[in-house]
């Protein structure tokens, strides 16, 4: 059964050109999940269904996949890729809101939960929300455009110190204060409302040599984390929702792409009354995968068994 969401108000976000998304650490994820037929599995960031397609193969017959995503565009792609089936349920929600999703489905507990905290290629190609500044478009950066404020509004109202904290804490950018000051100066002359405008301001404010990574990459990451409250969502999953809704002996697998995310996961799994870690150190991609799928270079997988 696919329960795709109602379209959000305004135009539905869609990538201008369909990107080819390769799920990161696929083999390692399936090994950590240790799936069997008949299991109930939550993919808390179902995306276009890359991981979920393989999960379904492993839990059939008799299993159920519950795919959750905040992004309506990604849920539509997941519905296309996974197909109509009574063992597939798709819901527009956050993994931090699993209580409401599972209560609605009358599912008291699940066997496995997977969360992949990275952006998909489809989101990066979306010209309507500015996730990939090279694709351009309005500076929105929200996964769910029905809730919260767009990044352009945050840039319009935040002061230098607030922006510095965001870029330093969420983007780990050494030029955080310089960039924040440049943004506040720039917006006094003209509002910063598009991805291209922000990328240009950041590039001009970033001294030194240019490597393979555009200087705006960390700034966009930081703003995305801020407007979507991603770390707060992760903390709620780890500290409250997952321990209650994963049955004893079940597993939680988290793929992170940011040092703060990884630290939260590592610290949560140290709570030995709740979790038995399966990964002493995070699992990372092989050199071959990193060459074929550059997104995997910063991916770190941790897994634990619910006691």
Primary descriptors:
2 domains; Rossmann fold; 13 helices; 7-stranded mixed beta sheet; single chain; alpha/beta; DNA polymerase, domain 1
CATH architecture assignment of the largest domain: 3-Layer(aba) Sandwich
**What fraction of the residues are assigned to beta strands by DSSP?**
5-15%
As laid out across the biggest beta sheet, the strand order is 3-2-1-4-5-7-6
Number of distinct beta strands: 7
Radius of gyration: 19 Å
Gross morphology: globular
Q: Any idea how many domains? A: 2
* Main sheet summary: 7 strands, mixed
How many helical elements? 13
The CATH H-level superfamily of the largest domain is Vaccinia Virus protein VP39
Biased composition (Basic residues): 297-307
Pfam families: Methyltransf_5
Catalytic activity: cytidine(1402) in 16S rRNA + S-adenosyl-L-methionine = N(4)-methylcytidine(1402) in 16S rRNA + S-adenosyl-L-homocysteine + H(+)
Region (Disordered): 278-307
Describe the protein in words.
- The protein is an alpha/beta fold.
- The chain has two domains: 26-122 and 230-306, Vaccinia Virus protein VP39 (Rossmann fold, 3-Layer(aba) Sandwich); 144-227, DNA polymerase, domain 1 (Orthogonal Bundle).
- 41% of the residues lie in helices and 14% in strands.
- The chain contains 13 helices and seven strands.
- It has a seven-stranded mixed β-sheet, with helices on both faces.
- Helix 11 (230-245) runs parallel beside helix 12.
- The longest helix is centred in the C-terminal third of the chain and has 16 residues, at 230-245.
- It is globular and about 60 Å long.
- Residues 278-307 are annotated as: Disordered.
- One of its GO terms (molecular function) is rRNA (cytosine-N4-)-methyltransferase activity.
- Keywords: Cytoplasm, Methyltransferase, rRNA processing, S-adenosyl-L-methionine, Transferase.
- Residues 297-307 have a biased composition (Basic residues).
């Amino acid at each position: 059964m696919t329960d795709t969401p109602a379209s959000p108000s305004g135009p539905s976000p869609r990538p201008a050109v369909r990107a080819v998304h390769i799920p990161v650490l696929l083999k390692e994820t399936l090994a950590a999940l240790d799936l069997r037929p008949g299991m109930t599995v939550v993919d808390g960031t179902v995306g276009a269904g890359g991981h979920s397609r393989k999960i379904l193969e492993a839990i059939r017959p008799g299993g159920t996949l519950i795919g959750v995503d905040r992004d309506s565009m990604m849920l539509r792609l997941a519905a296309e890729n996974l197909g109509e089936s009574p063992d597939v349920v798709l819901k527009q929600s956050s993994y931090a809101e699993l209580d409401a999703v599972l209560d609605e489905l009358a599912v008291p507990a699940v066997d496995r939960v997977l969360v992949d905290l990275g952006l998909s290629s489809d989101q990066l190609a979306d010209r309507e929300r500015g996730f990939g500044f090279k694709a351009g478009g309005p500076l929105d950066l929200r996964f769910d455009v029905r809730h919260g404020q767009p990044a352009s509004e945050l840039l319009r109202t935040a002061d230098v110190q607030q922006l510095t904290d965001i870029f330093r804490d969420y983007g780990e950018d050494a030029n955080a204060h310089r960039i924040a000051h440049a943004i506040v100066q720039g917006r006094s002359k003209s509002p910063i409302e598009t991805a291209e405008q922000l990328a240009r301001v950041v590039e001009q404010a970033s001294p030194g040599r240019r490597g393979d990574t555009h200087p705006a990459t960390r700034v966009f990451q930081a703003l995305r984390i801020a407007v979507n409250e991603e770390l707060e969502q992760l903390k709620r999953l780890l500290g409250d929702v997952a321990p209650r809704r994963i049955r004893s002996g079940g597993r939680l697998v988290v793929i992170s792409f940011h040092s703060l995310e990884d630290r939260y996961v590592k610290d949560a799994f140290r709570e030995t009354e709740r979790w038995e870690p399966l990964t002493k150190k995070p699992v990372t991609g092989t050199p071959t995968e990193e060459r074929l799928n550059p997104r995997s270079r910063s991916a770190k997988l941790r897994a634990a068994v619910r006691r």
